[in-house]
Amino acid sequence: MTAPRVPGWRRLLLEAGYSLRDFFGTFGAGQLFLLRILASLPYALARPRLVIQQVYVAGVQSLVVIMLAGLFVGMVLALQGHNTLSRFGAEDTIGMVAALGLVRELGPVVTALLFAGRAGTALSSEIGLMKATDQLAGMEMMAVDPIKRVVAPRFLGGVIAVPILTLIFNAMGIFGAWLEAVIVLGVDEGAFWSQMQAQVDLQDDVLSGIVKSVFFGVAASLLAVFEGYNCVPTAEGVGRATTRAVVHTSLTVLVLNFMLTAWLLGGN
Amino acid sequence: MKSGCPGADNIIVVRDLHYARGQAMVFDGLDLEIRRGGVTAIMGPSGTGKTTLLRLITGQEIPDRGSILFDGDEVTRMSRRQLFRMRRRVGMLFQNGALLTDLNVYDNVAFPLREHTRLPERLIRHIVLTKLHAVGLRGAWRLMPAQLSGGMARRVALARAIVMDPDIIYYDEPFVGLDPISMGVVVRLIRRMNDALGLTSVVVTHDVDEVSTIADCSFLLADGRVAATGTPEQLRDHHSETVTQFMQGMADGPVPFHYPAPDYGEQLLAPERD
Question: Is the torsion defined by CA of A168, A171, A211, A78 positive or negative?
């Protein structure tokens, strides 16, 4: 059957309308899903072993990726910083520049993006596969709520892991910056650390980065479990859900980062 | 009619069940009763909604119309809490076992006990080993689900299904993909568990020969309704074409061999794909 002919601009408008409706529908479903998870948190907290296991899976197993990424991001920051700052004879401030860049922006954002790629995909595909192999339905039939037993501990594990990973990323980044600036490029070590100590504020800089990472942790974990739980229970459906989880998390983190930065800077 | 077919004491009563998936009608006024204490087979060709019927009876899906009574309680109107209360009295064996892949055999069987009871670990161990022994897999308690064969996985799932001592067990296609030995084991276990534990068993299957050896009563579904009811022998002697085709495994009949298609010759000679 041939579809009725609709003018191009009208079809475009229709498709935009449908996409907008789908977006708000999914957004609303995500909020309701978050509420269900929050209502299930007492259950998860009463079984700390489940949560600790998920912190291990999401956190410890992402550690190598996070540390390596942190190291090289710190090193490249120092390299670029040195290249620019040395033109003005300000290479002594390189420690401060690298640390501020890391703790305020790069640490939380890159950690969240890496978390989405490493742990978020694992969460989505694991929950999706559990759905595809009737494990979630099996739990329902055993009168066990999968949101409580499967989703809430994984969500909580991610929310706990992301800020900790961010701190580790920051530490490794600063170490990388020191390695490049002091050891390789010969910047004065005393100036490197003292500038950093003097200019990086615990509350305005370090804490604001941690606040961001908590928001990113909630967003990344929520999107990962949401996509997995609501996937079409087929091999293709699980694959699509995993991809969606990474793409949506990456965009959400970047948009959220702008909003949080505006909010946190506005308070100053 | 043999004693296994619906009588006065029915644990499940389905009345005037209507259910459609999209535009496709699945049930069109289905009536069915399942007698307490027997082994009941629900049979029918693929796609007749056997598994959907199980999902409706257990409250995993909601019908468009009709009534489903479980031990006198209306399933279609149950809240989630009430559904969970009902499901504690129910065991279900999924087609693939649905074992939790991150837990070993022992923890899978112990799972419902740990979730629903506060029994000491020592007692849980006792119960789990007893149930595993009943299905012949006590020695496999350490294995992970990925290390089990299809038949073993289904036996572990059976041990898990009976660990809370349910009133009724639903088996969704329990014989699919099993070798003759595993199939024989599962067939005998269904009957043995039913009689030893005083259960009611509902077996959804299209394996006529296997289920005939253990079923007290069989329902044959076709066209959204029950096409025939009776003991396996009664179904074999049934005069309806639908029942005869299914029971004798005939390729063509009321269930056509060919999917609806335009004329063969015309399609072959047509210039384009349509």
Answer: negative
Q: What is the DSSP letter of A260?
A: H
Measured between beta carbons, which residues in chain B are less than 8 angstroms from residue A133? Answer: 96, 98, 101
pLDDT tens-digit series, residues B199-216: 899 999 887 778 888 888
Give, for B114, the enclosing helix (H) or strand (E).
Answer: helix B105-116
**Which of B52, B60, B90, B92 is the best residue to mutate to test the A interface, defined by the most A CB atoms within 10 Å of its own CB?**
B92
Distance separating alpha carbons of residues A154 and A225, to the nearest angstrom: 8
pLDDT in tens, A17-64: 999 999 899 889 999 999 999 999 998 888 899 999 999 998 888 899
Spatial distance between the Cα atoms of B68 and B250, rounded to a whole number of angstroms: 33
> Is A137 close to B98, i.e. CB distance below 8 A?
yes
Q: Which residues contact A225 (CB under 8 A, 6 or more apart)?
A: A33, A37, A123, A124, A127, A151, A154, A155, A158
Q: What distance in Å separates residue B24's CA from the closest CA in chain A? A: 20
Pairing of strands B217-222, B168-172: unpaired
Q: How many CB atoms lie within 10 A of CB A6?
A: 11
Q: In chain B, what are the domains?
A: 37-48+79-253 (3.40.50.300)
Kindly determine whether residue A141 and residue B84, on different chains, have CB atoms separated by under 8 Å: no
What are the C-alpha distances in Å from A216 to residues A23, A95, A250, A252?
20, 26, 10, 8
Instruction: Please state the pTM of the whole predicted model.
Output: 0.84
Q: What is the mean pLDDT of residues B75-82?
A: 91
3-state secondary structure of A54: helix
Q: In this structure, what token pair is assigned to residue B48? A: 């007749």
| CA proximity to B227, closest of B28, B19, B38 | B28
Phi, psi dihedrals of residue A153, rounded to the nearest 5°: -65, -35
- Geometric angle at alpha carbon B33, from B28 and B39, rounded to 5°: 120
Chain A residues closer than 8 Å to B95 by CB: 134
Sheet holding B73-74, edge to edge: B24-35, B10-21, B65-70, B73-74
Complex ipTM = 0.81
| B94 interface with A at CB cutoff 8 Å | yes
